[in-house]
Amino acid sequence: MANKQGGGGGGENISSAQAVFLGALAPGVNGPTWTTLRLAFVMLGVCLAVMLGLAFSSSDSWLVLHVAFLVLITTTLFLLLSWFLSQTGLVSVDHQIREIGLAPNDTSRKNTKKIEEKAL
C-alpha cells in the first residue's frame, strides 16, 4: 500500500503495515489497524458463509447449528468491538508514536546534549 500521512503534526510518512504493527504495541486503536481488523472480519464472514452453505447442503443439523453458533459469536464480537471504538474513538498514529516514546522531542535532545557536554 502507499504511504499515508500520519494524523498529527509529526509529518512522518508511515506505511499502513507499520501503523498496524505500531497499533499492536501502543495504547489505543489507529485507523489502519481498525481497517485491517474490519477486513479480517469480512474475510471471516465469507468463510463462515461458505461453511454455512456447505453445512446446509450436507443436511447435518448439528453441523448447521455449530456453524450458526460460530456466526453468532463472530457477529457479537464485531458489534462489541465497534461499540467499544465508538465510545473510545480512534487514536492518530503520531499520538501512538509519542505515547511509546519513538518520536524524538526537543526536551530529550536538549537533555542528551547536556549530558554529552558534561561527559566531555
Radius of gyration computed on alpha carbons: 22 Å
Which regions contain 5 or more consecutive residues with pLDDT less than 50? 1-11
Tell how many strands the DSSP assignment holds.
2
Q: How much strand?
A: under 5%
What's the main sheet like? 2 strands, antiparallel
| Mean pLDDT across every amino acid position | 81
Q: Given the C-alpha coordinates, what overall shape results?
A: rod-shaped
Description:
This protein has 120 residues and is mainly alpha-helical. The protein contains 5 helices and 2 strands, in the order E-E-H-H-H-H-H. It has helices spanning 16-25, 31-58, 61-88, 93-99, 106-119; strands at 4-5, 13-14. Strands 1-2 form a two-stranded antiparallel sheet. Strand 1 (4-5) and strand 2 (13-14) form a beta hairpin. The radius of gyration is 22 Å and the shape is rod-shaped. The chain starts with a strand and ends with a helix. Mean pLDDT is 81; it is low at 1-11.
Briefly say what this structure is.
Helices cover 72% and strands 3% of the residues. It has 120 residues and is mostly helical.
Write the layout of secondary structure elements.
Elements lengths: L3 E2 L7 E2 L1 H10 L5 H28 L2 H28 L4 H7 L6 H14 L1
Antiparallel strand pairs: 1-2
Helix pairs in contact: 1-2, 2-3
Which features characterize this protein?
120 residues; mainly alpha; two-stranded antiparallel ribbon; 72% helix; 3% strand; disordered N terminus
